[in-house]
Amino acid sequence: MSRRASFVRVAVAYVVAIAVAAVWLSLGPRTSSALWDAAVADVLATVVVFVFSRAHGNSSFYDAYWSVIPPLLVAYWWWRSDAGPGDPTAWVVTVVVLYWAVRLTANWAVGFPGLHHEDWRYPILRGRAGRFEAVVDLVAIHLIPSVQVFLGCVPAYLAVTHRPVALPWLVVVAAVVTLAAVALEWAADHQMRAFVAVKRPGQAMDRGLWAWSRHPNYFGEFGFWLGVFLFGVAVEPGDAWWSWIGAGAMLAMFLGASIPMMEERSLASRPSYGDVVERVPRFVPRPPRAAAGR
């Protein structure tokens, strides 16, 4: 299948998924709040994407869902809230989330070769499940990431629906944190693409931001969700004790699953990566250690 045809099929899947969610929100029974209404709609849309994934034998149908849905959630919550169309905090949150989503989706699009390719982690997860591979596909590859992203967006829900804003200065801090995190992700991805274009076989990336962190893109992604959490704290400081769970879930996924899988793969395929591990911090950027023997 060509790259263009693959984009069309993924786009159709997302249009159908969003349409199903919209029909539910319009005609389905309402829950006690816009938060839970959106949660049900998000699950339904995820199941639609899962159906397309199974029909095509490729779970990478889901990959861009991560970044496509959050702006729609924020827009829906703002529409259902008492905050007016000119509310400055709601505008800041919406613009920041949209900026993050456009950048991340564009990055996915640039690197998407077509539906002949599938993220290398998905077959591993399904293969480990044996006869329960369809369950793992639905739960681990589709539903759990959707839940994590939804939890990460909950502080944005607080920020666009609750008034007054308790800590206006923290809105500014949150905006700076999120924008800086997105800029860090952009720079890390740009540097990696430039490196891949000229690297030697088996060579490991240890330049630019990647000389300060082995996974600066994951660090930037966590920074974004930390900033979203700060938006929620700015509006509802008393809810900080539970609204951190989304950012916490992201950190747990990066440190407990995504990074270990990437590290294992890199050590197996790049002989020089062991030296990078010795010198370069795993997650939080800092100056690298000197190479052994120097």
Structural account:
By secondary structure, the chain is mainly α. The chain has one domain (70-279). Helix content is 72%, strand content 0%. It has 11 helices and no strands. It starts with a helix and ends in a 15-residue tail after the last helix. The mean pLDDT is 94.
Helix and strand topology:
Layout: H1 3-27, H2 34-56, H3 65-80, H4 88-111, H5 121-129, H6 133-161, H7 168-198, H8 216-235, H9 240-243, H10 245-269, H11 273-279
Q: Main sheet, how many strands, which sense, barrel?
A: none
Total of DSSP H or I helical runs spanning 4+ residues = 11
| SS elements, strand count | 0
What pattern of helices and strands is seen along the backbone?
HHHHHHHHHHH
Low-confidence stretches: none
What is the global morphology? globular
From the alpha-carbon coordinates, what is the Rg to the nearest angstrom?
20 Å
Number of domains: 1
Rounded average pLDDT:
94
Hey, roughly how much beta strand do the residues contain? under 5%
Gap between N and C termini: 51 Å
What structural class results from the helix and strand content?
mainly alpha
Give the helix proportion (percent range): over 70%
Quick description:
With 294 residues, this protein is mainly alpha-helical. The protein has one domain (70-279). Helices cover 72% and strands 0% of the residues.
Tag the structure with descriptive keywords.
294 residues; single chain; mainly alpha
